UniProtKB/TrEMBL annotation, chain A:
Keywords for this protein: ATP-binding, Nucleotide-binding, Transport
Organism: Streptomyces griseus subsp. griseus (strain JCM 4626 / CBS 651.72 / NBRC 13350 / KCC S-0626 / ISP 5235)
Keyword flag Ion transport: no
Presence of the UniProt keyword Transport in the record: yes
GO MF, any single term: ATP binding
PANTHER family named in the record: ABC TRANSPORTER ATP-BINDING PROTEIN, HEMIN IMPORT ATP-BINDING PROTEIN HMUV
Protein name: ABC transporter ATP-binding protein
Annotated ranges, domain ABC transporter: 3-235
InterPro entries in the cross-refs: AAA+_ATPase, ABC_transporter-like_ATP-bd, ABC_transporter-like_CS, P-loop_NTPase
CDD domains: ABC_Iron-Siderophores_B12_Hemin
Database matches in Pfam families: ABC_tran
From TrEMBL, chain B:
SUPFAM superfamilies given in the database record: ABC transporter involved in vitamin B12 uptake, BtuC
Protein name, per record: FecCD-family membrane transport protein
Lineage: Bacteria, Bacillati, Actinomycetota, Actinomycetes, Kitasatosporales
Organism of this sequence: Streptomyces griseus subsp. griseus (strain JCM 4626 / CBS 651.72 / NBRC 13350 / KCC S-0626 / ISP 5235)
Compartments it resides in: Cell membrane
InterPro entries found in the cross-reference section: ABC_BtuC-like (IPR037294), ABC_transptr_permease_BtuC (IPR000522)
Keyword Chaperone: no
Length: 268, 368
């Protein structure tokens, strides 16, 4: 098991945000974590690298409690693409990706020796090899996100954690990124907001609601209209995707009726 | 606008290239990336600047004479120089110019470290209230006499003030046992205002105009108290801190990427941050004690250098160290010659010289 969370509760201050969560990610498995805003998805993810320490329960990477592992060892076992984690200072793509070698390099070792090959491979994998010397701020949103994925790839850890990687991306860039992740064949835990993307790209989903896991299993079972209504407060119908044959959710308008008509003269 | 066809998508294996052409590699312009070339050049520049700075002052000395004196003193080479030249070069100017280099290097290094550590490009060595704390104690020592600060010298009192301010800021910015960068900056800025207000009060209440003038001179920074004997401590401090930081440039890079990213890259962020802050504050305390509050160097030199060599700390740190040293040597020389035979507080020169240079570089980098 690459990652296992058992009975994990997280409090921020005295406020409970996650309660008694059990979650596992197996070898090569792509697991999705979905739930409304504020349901505790990011908090749960942050326990893996000890950005938050659980109030109760255990977080284990390959069977070892993260509390017993050094920070470098955690980084060798799990890589993270956090939300908005582009550096403040304007690094080049290559410099950002080179950061991924940090957990493996000795103190004075340069990233141009032994580390050069994984960096080049990661850049190639996300198709940014041509953009190596560009500054991160000059890239499009999709390219920037791919650069951060490349940093995680250069880390060469068997588990990949992604926190809303498709945020702010247009539909092409979002699909491109998730296809890329699928192609890696690596154990992945991915927080996603778009239920249809989650259904299309994950083998298994966990649904988090008010800090508790309320369902887990294959997308077609988990994304049942009753559950979606309870957790997200939205009515939907589950259809079959005409191309992939997977589940596809069609959402109904909110019960308050159609949105108010635009004022006269506005719009078209 | 044409949407991509499947054929485009397949052809797009090297990122989204515009059809029919390779996108030029941008983003390199203005960046110098070859460290083995830059460092020796900057070191040479520093040596030349030091030599020139020793030569200028209220009494001019020929650069060749400077070299003669130094050669004779260091290796006993050449004929003994004139007593007057020896006195000016070896006892008066050289320790002062070297102190300028040491303080400039140290302030730039601290600036680089703090900007990464608190992830704030406006951080400077004084953001933690270090100089304001030191200033208050120095003002008390100068205005009320050393008895008021338990018999400490002005420098020692300033150092104690710097340490006390650091401890207060670190204590105030902890939440749940962790130092939070945003709180750190706020606590530092707030305490700086408090200490500055108290300093003004001390000056205002002191009836001695001469003491008020010396306090002001101290607050704006001065290297006039320099001598060989008070050069060794700051030089050793800068050397040790520099050597400690060089193996940690990767850590600084990771910290600049944000706390969660740094944790996921294997950096134990909270422990590292406290260590870096304490190291930076101790060094700042030592520098402020010998030179007063020299502003602008620690803020602007890191930015200036970043615009040229990029933000990677493996290049940034050593380059900023050399540029900071050179910059303060030049500023000190100007402070000695601009209103000859009087002397300007060096903080005035660093700001007036640095601000336009920085604005020019900023415009140039935005244009590219």
């Amino acid at each position: 098991m690459r990652l296992s969370l058992s009975g994990v509760s997280v409090r921020i201050g005295s406020h409970p945000v996650v309660e008694g969560c059990d979650l596992t990610v197996g070898d090569g498995e792509r697991v999705g974590l979905v739930g409304p805003n504020g349901s505790g998805k990011t908090s749960l993810l942050r326990t893996v690298h000890r950005a938050l320490d659980p109030f109760a329960g255990r977080v284990a990477l390959r069977g070892d409690d993260v509390k017993a592992l050094g920070q470098r060892e955690i980084a060798r076992r799990a890589a993270l693409v956090a939300q908005d984690s582009a550096p403040d200072f304007d690094f080049t793509v290559e410099e950002v990706v080179a950061m991924g070698r940090g957990p493996w390099l000795r103190t004075f070792e340069s990233a141009t020796g032994r580390a050069a090959a994984p960096i080049a491979a990661a850049l190639e994998r996300v198709r940014l090899a041509d953009h190596r010397t560009r500054r991160l701020s000059t890239l499009s949103g999709g390219e920037r996100q791919r650069a951060l994925v490349a940093r995680a790839l250069a880390q060469e850890s068997p588990l990949l954690l992604l926190d809303e990687p498709t945020n702010h991306l247009d539909v092409y860039a979002a699909l491109e990124l998730l296809e890329l992740v699928r192609g890696l064949g690596r154990a992945t835990l991915c927080v996603l907001h778009d239920l249809n993307l989650a259904a299309a790209y994950c083998d298994r989903l966990y649904v988090l609601h008010r800090g508790r896991i309320v369902a887990d299993g294959p997308p077609a079972e988990v994304l049942h209209p009753d559950l979606v209504r309870t957790v997200f407060g939205v009515a939907c119908t589950q259809l079959t995707h005409p191309v992939t044959g997977g589940p596809l959710l069609a959402f109904s308008p909110l019960p308050g009726g159609p949105l108010p008509a635009p004022a006269e003269g506005a719009g078209r | 606008m044409r949407r991509q066809t499947p054929a485009d998508v397949r052809a797009d294996t090297a990122g989204r290239r515009p059809p029919g052409g390779r996108r030029p590699v941008r983003g390199r312009r203005g960046r110098i990336t070859s460290l083995p070339v830059v460092i020796p050049l900057l070191f040479l520049l520093l040596l030349v600047t030091v030599c020139a700075a020793v030569a200028v002052g209220s009494v001019g000395v020929r650069p060749a004479t400077v070299l003669d004196v130094v050669a004779h003193r260091l290796v006993g080479a050449g004929p003994p120089p004139a007593v007057m030249d020896d006195q000016i070069v070896w006892n008066l100017r050289l320790p002062r110019v070297l102190l300028a280099a040491v303080v400039g290097a140290g302030l730039a290094v601290v600036g680089v470290t703090l900007q990464a550590t608190v992830r704030n490009p406006l951080a400077d060595p004084y953001v933690l209230g270090v100089s304001a704390g030191a200033g208050l104690m120095a003002a008390v020592a100068i205005t009320l006499g050393s008895a008021a600060v338990a018999g400490l010298s002005t420098s020692a009192a300033a150092f104690v003030g710097a340490l006390a301010a650091t401890a207060a800021v670190l204590g105030l910015s902890r939440r749940a046992g962790r130092v939070v960068p945003s709180r750190l900056v706020l606590a530092g800025v707030t305490l700086s205002y408090l200490f500055t207000g108290a300093t003004s009060f001390v000056i205002f209440r002191g009836s001695n105009a001469e003491a008020a003038h010396s306090v002001l001179f101290w607050l704006l920074g001065s290297l006039s108290e320099s001598s060989w004997s008070n050069l060794s401590l700051p030089a050793a401090a800068v050397l040790i801190v520099g050597l400690c930081l060089m193996p940690r440039t990767r850590t600084l890079n990771a910290l600049a990427a944000g706390d969660d990213a740094a944790l996921s890259l294997g950096v134990p962020v909270h422990r590292v941050r406290v260590r870096l802050l304490i190291t930076a504050s101790l060094l700042t305390g030592v520098l402020v004690a010998v030179s007063g509050g020299i502003g602008f160097v620690g803020l602007v030199v890191p930015h200036l250098v970043r615009l040229v060599v990029g933000p990677d700390h493996r290049r940034l740190l050593p380059t900023a160290l050399l540029v900071g040293a050179t910059y303060l040597v030049v500023a000190d020389a100007l402070s000695r010659v601009l209103v000859r035979p009087e002397e300007l507080p060096i903080g005035i020169v660093t700001a007036v010289l640095g601000a336009p240079a920085f604005l020019w570089l900023l415009r140039r980098s935005e244009a590219s």
